[in-house]
């Protein structure tokens, strides 16, 4: 079967760094997406990785290891507005998105 | 990023009635649209995938006669919840994707449906 695993909830301090992990087992792989979703709102696109390595975009970076079926989203200089759920999604062999359950990130002052 | 408009943002309806939710891609042609349902504190659950001009593909466990999906044009898809019941109350989100890969899916604002 297809499976995406993420921690359910994480807590971090304002100004700190947090890493949200995602492991996946899918039938085929056509890239991994990270989305941010604030409570009561629709998800917004953060990043896309299809090759191994780190992609940096401002305070957010995303890493991928295809051999390990593993990705992480790294958030630096955390701000209170970063409190949200972070969703990991993988494109399978049919280019369908398989979604993780999301990680709720709580930022404390 | 591209804009996807979903309407209405929220709706309250009586049990047994039908509700139509619209999803429009405003500045690109959406060859594929996805409809999701999200219950509180849970992740997105894909209900169906629709390609313009063809019948929607429903996920296992989703009643196609209850959740009618129409994708008549490259910019509009509709989801109609027929004979709604309180257990259908949820947050419904559409996303639209242009042809080609990788093209990230852009999400509508979501529709909060409450059936009383």
Computed structural class of chain B:
mainly beta
**On the 0-100 scale, what is the average pLDDT of chain B?**
89
**Uncertain residue ranges of chain A:** none
Strand content of chain A: over 45%
Write the layout of secondary structure elements.
The complex is a heterodimer of chains A (109) and B (116).
Chain A: E1 3-5, E2 9-13, E3 18-25, E4 32-37, E5 44-49, E6 53-57, E7 60-65, E8 70-75, E9 84-91, E10 97-99, E11 103-108
Chain B: E1 4-7, E2 10-13, E3 19-25, E4 32-38, E5 45-51, E6 57-58, E7 67-73, E8 76-81, E9 90-97, E10 106-107, E11 111-115
Parallel strand pairs in B: 2-11
Antiparallel strand pairs in B: 1-3, 3-8, 4-5, 4-9, 5-6, 7-8, 9-10, 9-11
Describe this structure in words.
The complex is a heterodimer of chains A (109) and B (116). Chain A is mostly beta strands and 109 residues long. Chain A is 0% helix and 57% strand. Chain A is built from no helices and eleven strands. In chain A, strands 2, 4, 5, 9, 10 and 11 form a six-stranded mixed sheet that branches. Chain A has a five-stranded antiparallel sheet with strand order 1-3-8-7-6, with no helix packed on it. Chain A is globular. By secondary structure, chain B is mainly β. In chain B, the strands form two sheets. In chain B, strands 2, 4, 5, 6, 9, 10 and 11 form a seven-stranded mixed sheet that branches. In chain B, a hairpin with a 2-residue loop joins strand 7 and strand 8. Chain B is globular and about 40 Å long. Chain B starts with a strand and ends with a strand. Chains A and B meet through strand 5 and strand 9 of A and strand 9 and strand 10 of B.
């Amino acid at each position: 079967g297809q499976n995406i695993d993420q921690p359910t909830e994480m807590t971090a301090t304002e100004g700190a760094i947090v890493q949200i992990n995602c492991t996946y087992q899918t039938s085929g792989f056509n890239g991994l997406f990270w989305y941010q979703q604030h409570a009561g709102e629709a998800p917004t696109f953060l990043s896309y990785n299809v090759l191994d390595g780190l992609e940096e975009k401002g305070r957010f970076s995303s890493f991928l290891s295809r051999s390990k079926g593993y990705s992480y989203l790294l958030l630096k200089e955390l701000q209170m507005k970063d409190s949200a759920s972070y969703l990991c999604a993988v494109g399978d062999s049919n280019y369908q998105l398989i979604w993780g359950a999301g990680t709720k990130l709580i930022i404390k002052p | 990023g591209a804009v996807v408009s979903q309407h209405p943002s929220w709706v309250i309806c009586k049990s047994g009635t039908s509700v139509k939710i619209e999803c429009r891609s405003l500045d690109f042609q959406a060859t594929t649209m996805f409809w999701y349902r999200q219950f509180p504190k849970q992740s997105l659950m894909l209900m169906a995938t629709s390609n313009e001009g063809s019948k929607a593909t429903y996920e296992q466990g989703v009643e196609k006669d209850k959740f009618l999906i129409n994708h008549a044009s490259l910019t509009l898809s509709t989801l109609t919840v027929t004979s709604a019941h309180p257990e259908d109350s949820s947050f419904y989100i559409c996303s639209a994707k242009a042809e080609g890969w990788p093209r990230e899916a852009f999400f509508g604002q979501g529709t909060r449906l409450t059936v009383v």
